[in-house]
Design a protein that fits this description.
By secondary structure, this protein is mainly α. About 70% of the residues lie in helices and about 5% in strands. It has a two-stranded antiparallel sheet with strand order 1-2.
Length: about 260
């Protein structure tokens, strides 16, 4: 009988274990683009490893382009990890009226799915963050500043994305922040022609919040779609009215 030689399983290198943990923190959003990493001493204590092993892991993270080190300033998660979504094409899209409706349709998908999974998977800590961001919208509305309100609305939806515990949706939303905030701001500027509809928008947003907090995925998805459908319908009507007015003015000018 042939003796079977035992082979000892190769243990992963400690720096690779730390590297995997840091990468997971970036994926799940615990570490975000531009964020400064804690000092080596604190991270070494957190991971219960030696500073040389931690330093080696960070060097590997830097080699992958996931962090950058600034002389005397510390280590930072790389800005614009999904930089391909901030190229000149997206700048053109932000200025296109047609693309604004395309982006609204895109939001149907990502916001609806995020709301569904947030209601299904969200934790109490997630819900507290969502409520906090929801209340910030009212604070921004008091300022009567569409840009500030758009940023507050985006942060509310970003909190919902985080509560979905889907890393792809969270990072995709973050990478498109400029485009989405600009879309919301443009929508608010147009909708300001109809001040009466803002209370209805608030009602829809409140329904969305309640559906998520009560853990009702289907209801959350529906509330998200109803909210965006209402906005799209009003925008289309206002755009059509403005187009008719512009045509009338051009006709009057030709007659004159």
């Amino acid at each position: 009988m042939v003796a079977i030689k035992s082979v000892k399983a190769k243990q992963p290198k400690l720096s690779d274990v730390i590297l995997a943990q840091l990468e997971q923190m970036i994926i799940e959003g615990s570490l975000v683009s531009g964020q400064k990493l804690p000092p080596e001493r604190e991270l070494a204590a957190q991971f219960e490893v030696s500073r040389p092993s931690l330093r080696e892991a960070i060097q590997k993270l830097e080699a992958k382009g996931l962090v950058t080190r600034k002389q005397g300033g510390g280590t930072f998660v790389t800005d614009n990890l999904l930089s391909g979504l901030s190229d000149p094409l997206f700048d053109l899209m932000a200025k296109s009226k047609e693309s604004q409706f395309d982006l609204l349709e895109f939001r149907y998908g990502i916001e609806g799915m995020s709301a569904y999974y947030a209601a299904m998977r969200g934790t109490e800590a997630d819900f507290e963050q969502i409520k906090l961001k929801y209340e910030s919208i009212s604070d921004a509305q008091i300022e009567n500043n569409h840009k500030a309100e758009a940023e507050a609305v985006f942060e509310f939806y970003l909190a919902i994305c985080a509560a979905s515990h889907n890393a792809i949706m969270l990072h995709l939303a973050r990478s498109m922040s400029t485009l989405i905030i600009d879309n919301i701001e443009q929508n608010l500027t147009i909708l300001a022609q109809r001040p009466d509809i803002f209370s209805k928008m608030s009602d829809y947003r409140k329904r969305l919040l309640e559906a998520i907090l009560s853990g009702q995925p289907q209801k959350a998805w529906g509330a998200s779609h109803q909210h965006l459908s209402f906005i799209e319908e009003v925008l289309l009507n206002l755009t059509e009215e403005r187009s008719r007015m512009e045509r009338s003015i051009r006709r009057m000018q030709r007659i004159g």
